[in-house]
């Protein structure tokens, strides 16, 4: 009888311990999700504040040109995204090709955003030469393994960051361009049309797109890092 009670008590204690660990793990998981969401909200808020900085500082003289804080933010975001995708390509064999292509894409976008500096300090049209060089490097890298592109992209598509990347990419190449059409703002504002308003909207949306891509690159790099730790643990 005592043996049965002892065994029952141990089982109950074990079940309670397991339940407590499960609850604790769930709470920690929810807290991490909340923290991550808060950090991304903070990042987007900081970006929005930096975009508005030129307007507050220069008032009606603000132009939001290629030398503005907004443009520099785009440069930083695209470069950091390039570095993060390159990191994943070096540490994840299944996604090596996909992330190498993404790194090359972000490198080309960074060069494109820096076109005015290259034109001024190198030669006119230098950014096009650099982009062609990057494309050449990509072709050389892919030579003989074109069939492996789809499986690698399919592996990347399994990650949640894929959707965030697509959202950012579409925002940059599609939504920002459509919302930044001069004809639209001329129709809306009429005789009161100001080009700076068009620039703020277009460049602001574009910067949001780069921010989303940067977030997706961070998420992918963190996921890759977690997989590495699990592999080392086993």
Q: Please mark out the parts with pLDDT under 50 across 5 or more consecutive residues, or reply none.
A: none
**Could you tell me how far the N terminus lies from the C terminus, measured between alpha carbons in angstroms?**
43 Å
Percentage of residues in DSSP E strands: under 5%
The helix-strand sequence is: HHHHHHHHH
Largest sheet: none
Percent of residues in helical segments?
A: over 70%
Please give the number of β-strands.
0
C-alpha-based Rg, rounded? 24 Å
Count the helices. How many?
A: 9
The number of domains = 2
* Shape estimate: globular
Q: What is the arithmetic mean of pLDDT?
A: 82
Structural class: mainly alpha
General description of the model:
Keywords: Membrane, Transmembrane, Transmembrane helix. The chain crosses the membrane at residues 126-144, 156-175, 207-224. By secondary structure, this protein is mainly alpha-helical. The chain has two domains: 1-62; 65-233, no CATH class. Helix content is 84%, strand content 0%. The chain is built from nine helices and no strands. 26% of the residues are buried.
